[in-house]
Amino acid sequence: VEASIPEPQREAWTKNQFDGFKNKDEFEKEVVRHVETTLARSMFNCDDVAAYSATALAFRDRLIKDWNKTQQRQTFTDSKRIYYLSLEFLMGRALDNAMLNVKGKDIAKSALDELGFRIEDIIGQENDAALGNGGLGRLAACFLDSMASLNYPAWGYGLRYRYGIFKQEIIDGYQVEVPDYWLDFNPWEFPRHDVTVDIQFYGHVRKSQDANGKTVANWEGGETVTAVAYDMPIPGYDTPSTNNLRLWSSKAASGEFDFQKFNSGEYESSVADQQRAETISAVLYPNDNLDRGKELRLKQQYFWVAASLYDIVRRFKKSKRAWREFPDQVAIQLNDTHPTLAVVELQRILIDKEGLEWDEAWAIVTATFGYTNHTVLPEALEKWPVGLFQHLLPRHLQIIYDINLFFLQSVEKRFPDDRDMLSRVSIIEESQPKMVRMAYLAIVGSHKVNGVAELHSDLIQTTIFKDFVKIYGADKFTNVTNGITPRRWLHQANPRLSELIASKTGGYDYLKDLTTLNKLEQYVDDKAFRKEWAEIKYANKVRLAKYIKSTLDITVNPAALFDVQVKRIHEYKRQQLNIFGVIYRYLQIKEMSAEERKKQAPRVSIFGGKAAPGYWMAKQIIHLINNVGSVVNKDPDVGDLLKVIFLEDYNVSKAEIIIPASDLSEHISTAGTEASGTSNMKFVLNGGLIIGTCDGANIEITREIGQENIFLFGTLSEDVEDLRHNHTYGKHAVDSGLQKVFDAITSGKFGDANDFGALVSAVRDHGDYYLVSDDFQSYIDTQKMVDEEYKNQEEWVSKCIRSVARMGFFSSDRCINEYAEEIWNIEPLAV
Ligand code: NTF
Q1: For a disulfide at 252, which of 143, 194, 277, 655, Cβ 3.0-4.6 Å?
Q2: How far, in Å, is the centroid of ligand 1 from the Cα of 490?
Q3: Ligand 1 interacting residues, C-beta cut-off 6 A
Q4: Which of 133, 136, 334 for a ligand 1 pocket mutation test, highest count of atoms within 8 Å of Cβ?
């Protein structure tokens, strides 16, 4: 307000508004201007990188206009906002997305052409913003796209990691990790050096009496680190709404303390302080579905949460409303338990800083937060040692103890006869050492808890959070099945298919209401349409085949069935089942006569995905896949019948090439382990079929597209426990087909058998926790069905079209509307 221009001078501002380019010529002018002035280059030294930079800057200018307007409008109307707190945002590239969302890609394409560049090459220059591990981070990115596209006043809050998820190299069949320094040139972020928050760690709590004799807690001393805001514009599709993603970067607090150190000759230790501060936002933890409990991770969490809440509260206070109106203005969604400290921090602000009474404050807190659970895997549920909390966040630990005390008191009143209940639901686990159970804290501190697919939401209510359903009633728990943005995952990744769909459904409006895809169903029997459809799939496969040739120097036949499994490598996702199946197929081919071989359907098995650097078993799986590939791919008996490909460094931009090229994708987790999965949705939406287990969103995909259009197999989730029990008591013999696979591995056919001993014995000797042996036969049988059905291409393509037509439900727009209505109580605000 202090910086606003006085009335008489505003006219000069209004008449000089920058409007951005409106046509090709204006765009060209913008690009040339950026090359020559912003980048200080010329037509004599403009390479692809410079052309990318200038193009990005021109589109950025466009976005900023809408972004400013959107933010001004949100401030002016003082409407309720949703704040999405996520430690991961797996955004991928921004330029293509920005061009498509503002409908400027055609202009850019012809302009760049005239200036001497191919738009695909220019798009390819951008580094992925890879600030996430997998599904959880990509979901957050899809949500940002949907919130902006649906005009919800929404902000994302996260960390600005200097290093995103590592880059994966495959050397001699092994994964090697390379740091991902992605910030060299990032035109999409705006440093806000004026938006900073000082964050405190360690120290101690002093209690004193205020003027009214009330005890107040004061947290003082310790270390201070400064959070600096970096903002990224998030454009909506075909709307001026442009939301903000605010990422915090850490730097040393510039207090007098530093000065004294410099002056007193402690230069080195002063620089060391600086580095310690910068370490907080230096690196994304590379684990997917695993909690490792490192102190720096807890520091990251508090740093990010405290800065975000300070920002949110500061914004709320500008409106001068009463505190009890806070939940009418602010909704905060916790993406998993990573931001759960926000619950404690808001309670601390309200009672320690703003002087509210506990109960009044707590009512505000619980009305503000919602919590999304993304996993039931015990190793992924966050717990922090009480001692670490005491050391790092002493005041927060006190508040957690109080939250727990009041919670347990209320439980005891309602269930006086259930003696075990209190210890079961306590936020503090009475173990050695004692632990803070973050999921329980998140449940107690939120008004809604949701899972991410129907089966998963049922499972959390009947297993890990069962007691809380008894305590709070079923209404506090709900399901919001995940979704994906059709803008990136169809329109951007598969432009030709998008164009074909638009030509049949009446334009690109289907991108705003994905349920209108159902209009496609009437063309299933249209031969010409099917032919066009098949041609597009083939072209996408040719593109992937070229990519495989250029990166791995392996020739694959685009007419073969492309069978794809790309996702983080994890035992529960069972890439080992897939590769064992591939080995089985190979052994069968080897046994066949030349005549029999001719009848076989050729296949390319494509894998991709990163293993967490400390996950040894996952790395063994990668190694086995690569070794199998190097044997199979050069075996003359096999030829085109089978190729095994491991694509290096799977990420969002590679997914955009791989997914549209798949005929069959694998989503084969042990039933009950994959909370939802979202790539399953992407593959079907791009006209590929699925082989999968009855797990996560596969179940709802089946319900939507029909069971005749999906290849389901394997154990059901309700039977998993009994089967595991059988293994424990030795009541299971390894499947005979799988035994042949193991024999081949142990004979050294795929390299030193010792290398893969652990993979074999996990199944054979150590209880087969993921039920690979139990599901092997039905997996192989189902793959046989796939082979047969793929031979009938007309029927196969019909299935693909029908499936796509029925995928409307899986748009992240549907998903965000459900959150908005059921959890956030928030309305769209058109700009
Ligand atoms: C993941 N969870 C699940 O494993 C996926 O099934 C799901 O699709 C995504 O979340 C998004 O909901 C996690 O990454 C975590 F952190 F919870 F383990």
Answers
A1: 277
A2: 22
A3: 134-136, 139, 288-289, 336, 374-375, 380, 452, 482, 674-678, 696
A4: 136
Atom 14 of ligand 1 has which residue's CA nearest to it?
A: 136
Mark whether 446 and 319 lie in a shared domain. Answer: yes
CB-CB contact of 512 with 498 (8 Å): no
587 part of a folded domain? yes
> pLDDT band for position 258 (50/70/90)?
low
CA nearest neighbour of 427 among 448, 450, 411, 415:
411
Cα(751)–Cα(630) distance, integer angstroms:
10
Q: Two tokens at 549?
A: 């040739």
Token pair recorded at residue 562: 């492309």
DSSP-based three-state secondary structure for 428: strand
177 class by beta-carbon count within 10 Å (0-12 exposed, 13-18 middle, 19+ buried): middle
In a domain, 290, yes or no: yes
Q: Decide: helix, strand or coil at residue 170.
A: strand
Helix or strand holding residue 138 (H, E)? helix 135-149
- pLDDT at residue 48 greater than cutoff 80: yes
Rounded Cα gap, residues 269 and 47, in angstroms: 43
Check pLDDT > 70 for residue 294: yes
What is d(CA 112, CA 528) in angstroms, rounded to the nearest whole number? 34
Same domain, 643 and 702: yes
Same domain for 399 and 543, yes or no, is: no
Q: Is the pLDDT score of 100 beyond 80?
A: yes
Complex ipTM more than 0.95, yes or no: yes
Write out pLDDT tens, residues 459-491.
999 999 999 999 999 999 999 999 999 999 999
Can you give the CATH number for the domain in which 206 is found? 3.40.50.2000
- Write out pLDDT tens, residues 192-241: 999 999 999 999 999 999 888 889 999 998 999 999 999 999 999 999 99
Q: What is the tens place of the pLDDT at every residue in 386-408?
A: 999 999 999 999 999 999 999 99
